[in-house]
Amino acid sequence: MKKIYVIITCLVLASWFFLDMIGVYIGEKYLVTQSFSEDGLFFVIYILSLLVFIFKEKIGKYILNIWLIIWLSTQFLFHWITTITGLGASKIEYFKDSIKLINSEKRYIPDLYHIVLHILIILAFVILNIYLYEKKRCYGEKTKDNF
To answer: Are 17 and 34 in contact (CB under 8 A)?
Structure first.
């Protein structure tokens, strides 16, 4: 696998996440509200992690991998754990005008934006690690900081 596939996947994720920085409204509903004040730090850290990976892969692979794990864990805790436990009553009200794939009045189910975001985070993590595994296997990196 080529590094460009990792970069493209991560740029698609960055583009999707950027929608959170500007907000996207469609009529009375929204895909995502403008949340720079809440999520801007995550966005900046992700972009910096991606840039370090692109230009300094030796250390960047660790930084990007760790950040993707932290980000996915945070998303899981704030979105899916409430779905699993059924403790998301306040989230139902908070996200009531968002575009949803599945609408529920009794249980919080993440909206379309967050479902796609979570899939893209997982995809970026998987593609990155496939690339690193294949690079190590095929080229046998001869450094101490192997994958």
So the answer is: no
Domain count, the chain: 1
Whether 127 and 107 have beta carbons less than 8 Å apart is answered as no
Average pLDDT over residues 117-123: 97
CA end-to-end span of the chain, whole Å?
Answer: 15
Geometric angle at alpha carbon 79, from 76 and 84, rounded to 5°: 85
Question: Whole-model pTM?
Answer: 0.89
CA angle in degrees (0–180, nearest 5) for 20-13-112: 55
**Residues 18, 86 contacting (CB under 8 angstroms):** no
Q: Which of 75, 106, 72, 108 has the alpha carbon at shortest distance from 91? A: 108
| Contact of 69 with 125, CB cutoff 8 Å | yes
- Residues spanned by the domain of 46: 3-23+37-139
CA separation for the pair 112, 76 (Å, rounded): 15
